[in-house]
Design a protein that fits this description.
By secondary structure, the protein is of the alpha/beta class. The protein is built from six helices and twelve strands. It binds zinc ion.
Length: about 260
């Protein structure tokens, strides 16, 4: 585990070729676990840290959204409160029944579902440190982030991603841009994406630019009569100079292009 600030710890694993990060935030009366990675075993270091730190604090497990690599470790915290956006619970169930090749089977321990759901915002006020959960639709309709104002730390889930985000919300372009603009208004020093390195606010700017430029380019292609399968817009044109992307992200960009094509 890596300590990011006075009250924030991070834990990352590599699953299916990409890295996923979970966060722990300590407040006076509660400890928050933000995302549970791909299995209960992957959360063992976090469970170990909690044993040392919890000291009577209530453990609150937060799922940033329903995707398997953020919820499959929930069973490591069975019996505690699970908090998520109110759509998350249903989407976890739908995902488990989808039979999609991109979704591995759930762990044998099962996946405890969120027991507390909220709409736009949920704020925990522990005298010393407030913790805000904020609905940030765009990547998915149930995406949320966790914001710790006094540390100026933002745990972003998949709402922010390096070098660019994945689109998994039907017709979500405008709502995603609105989300990123709102995040840019927060006082933030460190942004922690679930996939990618800890950065400053430049990751929000980069994601915003990627969205704006890609929507514009795909719209122009479609208007000029290019077929969905023939749109030729390499990822490099939409990310910062010199950033290398691997096969996973090349495929993801291609899927984003098709996703946008269906929307514009
Ligand atoms: Zn996701």
């Amino acid at each position: 585990m890596e300590q990011l600030s006075d009250t924030v710890w991070l834990h990352s694993v590599v699953t299916r070729g990409f890295s996923v990060t979970s966060g722990v935030v300590m407040a006076r009366d509660r400890i928050f676990v933000f995302d549970t990675l791909d299995s209960p075993q992957a959360m063992a270091p976090v469970a170990g840290l909690l044993e040392g730190l919890a000291a009577g604090r209530r453990i609150v497990v937060v799922n940033s959204h329903h995707h398997w690599d953020h919820v499959y470790g929930n069973a490591a915290f069975a019996g505690h409160d699970f908090v998520a956006h109110r759509l998350c619970r249903r989407l976890i169930v739908t995902q488990s029944r989808s039979g999609s090749a991109s979704v591995p089977p759930p762990p044998p321990e099962g996946v405890p579902l969120p027991s507390v759901g909220f709409g736009d915002r949920l704020r925990y006020d522990d005298e010393s440190a407030a913790v805000n959960l904020i609905h940030t639709p765009g990547h998915t309709e149930d995406s949320i982030i966790l914001y710790v104002p006094d540390q100026q730390v933002l745990l972003g889930g998949d709402t922010v991603e390096w070098p660019f985000p994945a689109f998994a919300q039907r017709d979500g372009g405008e709502v995603y841009l609105k989300t990123l603009r709102a995040l840019n208004q927060l006082a933030v020093r460190q942004v922690v994406p679930a996939h990618g390195p800890v950065m400053g606010k430049e990751i929000i700017d980069a994601n915003q630019r990627y969205l704006e430029d890609l929507y514009e380019a795909v719209r122009a292609s479609k208007r000029s009569g290019v077929n969905r399968a023939d749109v030729d817009l390499p990822a490099e044109a939409f990310i910062a100079d010199g950033v290398e992307i691997d096969e996973t992200y090349r495929t993801m960009h291609h899927e984003n292009v098709e996703w946008v094509y269906d929307e514009v």
